[in-house]
Amino acid sequence: MSRRLFISLELPEEAKYLLSNTLSELREKSGRKWKWENLVKYHLTLKFLGECDPEIEGQIIQTLKKYSASGVFNFTYEKFGFFSERGIPRIFWAGLGFEEDIYALVHKIDLDMSVLNFVTEKRRFNPHITLLRIKDFYDIRDLEEFDGRKISGDSFTADTLCLYNSELKPSGSEYSKIFEINLSN
């Protein structure tokens, strides 16, 4: 049975809590029953793989192991924003400030996954944390005032590369970690 996989950088717990605390004002202000992403799901997606047959997972893991000495990556939270589809906001996110070296890792992963027959990403990498998937019935007027708002906070370091399974359920996606490797070895 195939699984829906993605490769990500794990965020440190203190960075997750900082972002969650920053969002508390917005969650209170909205006062609606929107389904915000839980902080346990905060991560930085480097490559979405999609549906994968189980026999390829071993090859993906073997490929990811070669990144063990890639080093750590430093980030800061920058601002909130939206990804839209045909002019309609669909994703509310927290953008990240970063060092250019993350592009090299993303490029290597993309090339290595293309050898395993995954599609090469055409869009420029845009580091962000998904906070809310906007449903058609959401009234997002209160949310729109946060578009572009700066996020204060200290920098943080991400040093763990993960392979996750994302299982889609009526209640939302559930993530389960399949593999992780520390990048500072």
For the largest beta sheet, what order do the strands appear in spatially?
2-1-7-8
Main β-sheet description: 4 strands, antiparallel
> How many individual helices?
4
Are there runs of 5+ residues with pLDDT below 50, and where?
Answer: none
State Rg.
Answer: 17 Å
- How confident overall, as mean pLDDT? 91
**How many domains would you count in the coordinates?**
1
Please tally the β strands and state the result. 8
- Sketch the topology as an H/E string, one letter per element: EHEHEEHEHEEE
What does the overall shape look like? globular
CATH homologous superfamily assignment: Cyclic phosphodiesterase
- Give me the CATH architecture, please: Alpha-Beta Complex
Query: What is the CATH C level class, in words?
Result: Alpha Beta
State the end-to-end distance: 33 Å
Question: Which secondary-structure class do the elements indicate?
Answer: alpha+beta
Query: What is the fold-level CATH name, i.e. the topology?
Result: Cyclic Phosphodiesterase, Chain: A
Helix content: 25-40%
Beta-strand percentage?
35-45%
Written description of the protein model:
This protein is an alpha+beta fold and 185 residues long. It has one domain: Cyclic Phosphodiesterase, Chain: A (Alpha-Beta Complex), CATH 3.90.1140.10. Helix content is 26%, strand content 39%. It contains four helices and eight strands. Strands 2-1-7-8 form a four-stranded antiparallel beta sheet, covered by helices on one side. The protein has a four-stranded antiparallel beta sheet with strand order 5-4-3-6, with helices on one face. The radius of gyration is 17 Å and the shape is globular.
